[in-house]
Amino acid sequence: MKALEFKYNFRISLSALFLVLINPSVSSQELEDYIIQLEQVMSQRTEFDQLKENRINSLIKKKSSISSAYDSYKINDKIYDEYEFYNFDNALGYIEKNLYLATQLEDNLLLDKARLKMGLLLVNTGRYKEAIDILSEIKKDSLPKILLKNYFIAFSEGYSGLAFNTTVSESKSNYTQLYLVYRDSLYSRLDANSEEVLRAKEKDLRDIRSLKMAFIINDKRLSKARKNSRRYSLITFERSLLYELEGDVENQKINLISSAISDIKASVKDNASMATLANILFNEGDIDRAYSLINFSYDDAEFFNSNLRYINIANDLPLISKSYEQKTVKQKKRLHTLLFYITILSFFLVLALYIIYKQVLKVSQARNELKLMNEDLMSLNVKLSEVDRIKENYIGSFLNLYSEYISKLDVYRKQVSKYVKNNQMNALLKLSESKQMIDEELEIFNKNFDNSFLHLHPDFVDSINKLLEDDKRVVVSESNKLNTELRILALIKLGITSSSKIAKILRYSVNTIYNYRAALKNAAKDKSTFEDLVKKIN
Q1: pTM for the complete prediction?
Q2: Structural domain boundaries, residue 420
Q3: What percent of the chain has pLDDT above 90?
């Protein structure tokens, strides 16, 4: 719906634009509106080009199902017509295909038609010498009347281009004479009101500065042209040349805009309006728009592969680009300056807001702190209660163990006393030499130690194994029991790091403890900090 609305509005705008072409009075606001409209159409270039590509792809697809050389020639001709002002290389490729097909068919008429189209293509893209060479191969006498028009147009345009571009006086004179000959031949074969004759007459009148008569002919040509066609683009561009000669820059720009819009909508990449308009806007100081237009024009010239357009654009592109970059640099410097002042003001603003914010938050912060303190106290009470419970538990265990130890010592004392009173020296000696009681007590000690320690640190074994290499991890036979290595590490965790103290507690020699500790360090992933990491196990 929006697309239809845009097309409707655009059609109305083009109608208004045609009125402006006739009306020499143009306000600056009207001109600004047309430039904005041009920019809108520029943004839709991809959509218009896609329509062109769809038509070309449809023809190519149709061509794939054709086996006849003659039919292939006709399809190639249609594809060429689509590519003619859209992509030079592809257009040339399809003409060359038709030259080959016509040769294979031994059809001189088709061959001359292909040569003629190639000549016109080369002329339109500024390849004048190549155009004359290919046109010279055509046998004029064998051409039908309908093709003679294009034959003389191609030659006249070719020699006109050569005359304009050569710097050698004798060559310029020869080319000019040949141009006039072919132009006169063209005049004699065409209707006086045909587009070709009217265009040539307008050019002659423009060259001799008979602008009033040239405008009359241009009006006549414009009334016959279909909008959004290449002919419409060409006529409005040539009308802009007349306004340029009159010194009417505003109407010159209006016609260039009209020509550019028509070129974009018709997907004509071989165009000159956009680059000319960019140059005018640049000279007027509108650098941003000039930069946008010249780059748009360059993209079209690059896509079409037009040497002629490259040459025209090459004169303006570097100058416009440099000015645009200089303007951008100035804008950046100005922006940096503004940002500097804004930053300073922002700093003071943020500082003021921060002070206000701090004041506002004081009461809220005090409440939150009080709430957090209450929560911390409650958490601390819970922890203290847990600690007290643990203390009570282990104090009870210690007192029970100590009481049992005293009872066992008393039993041992009574037994010794009994042996002494009964003069049982051998039994006494045997009792004193036996290690059974020590071993039993040591086993009980280890069991109580393991249970107590693992109750406090249930994940101790897993934590130790994380510090050891995978193939050297400690494996315990029972989940609530430690082996000698783990008891050594448990004592280190409890802050007992002296090997002599550990040896006394575990009833081993100091050397044995050293060996165990050395073996554990060698098995560790990080040998230098192993025991420090053991102490930090939660």
Answers
A1: 0.56
A2: 326-431
A3: 25
